[in-house]
């Protein structure tokens, strides 16, 4: 089953992405699959913040882990709604999620 996730890129264009829930993907991998400008330099280990995004609506997300919290405490352009895309697994609960890519640091 796929869920719809909307991602606003750095130029303000909104992309409607069909995200498969059966492939153990995360938001960073989804953005890369759609060729959005997300680096994911560390390969999804919560060590670089190049997949930082802002959560724009109220969708239940998994709790932020210690590694993600520590990385965001050192990252640029962090807001109260910042998350690392690599730390958000794609599940049916993400249906309707709206995100914005953080500026490149």
From TrEMBL:
Cited SUPFAM superfamilies: 2Fe-2S ferredoxin-like (SSF54292)
Name used for this protein in its record: Ferredoxin
Keyword Iron-sulfur: yes
Membrane spanning stretches: none
Protein source organism: Flavobacterium zubiriense
Protein keywords: 2Fe-2S, Iron, Iron-sulfur, Metal-binding
InterPro entries documented for this protein: 2Fe-2S_ferredoxin-like_sf, Adrenodoxin-like, Beta-grasp_dom_sf
């Amino acid at each position: 089953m796929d869920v719809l996730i909307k991602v606003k890129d750095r130029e303000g264009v909104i992309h409607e992405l069909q995200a498969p829930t059966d492939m153990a993907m995360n938001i960073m991998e989804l953005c890369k699959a759609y060729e959005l400008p997300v680096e994911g330099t560390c390969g999804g280990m919560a060590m670089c913040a190049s997949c930082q995004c802002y959560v724009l609506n109220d969708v239940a997300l998994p709790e932020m882990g210690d590694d993600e919290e520590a990385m965001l405490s050192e990252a640029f352009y962090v807001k109260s709604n910042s998350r690392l895309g690599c730390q958000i697994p794609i599940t049916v609960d993400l249906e309707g999620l709206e995100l914005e890519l953080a500026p490149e640091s």
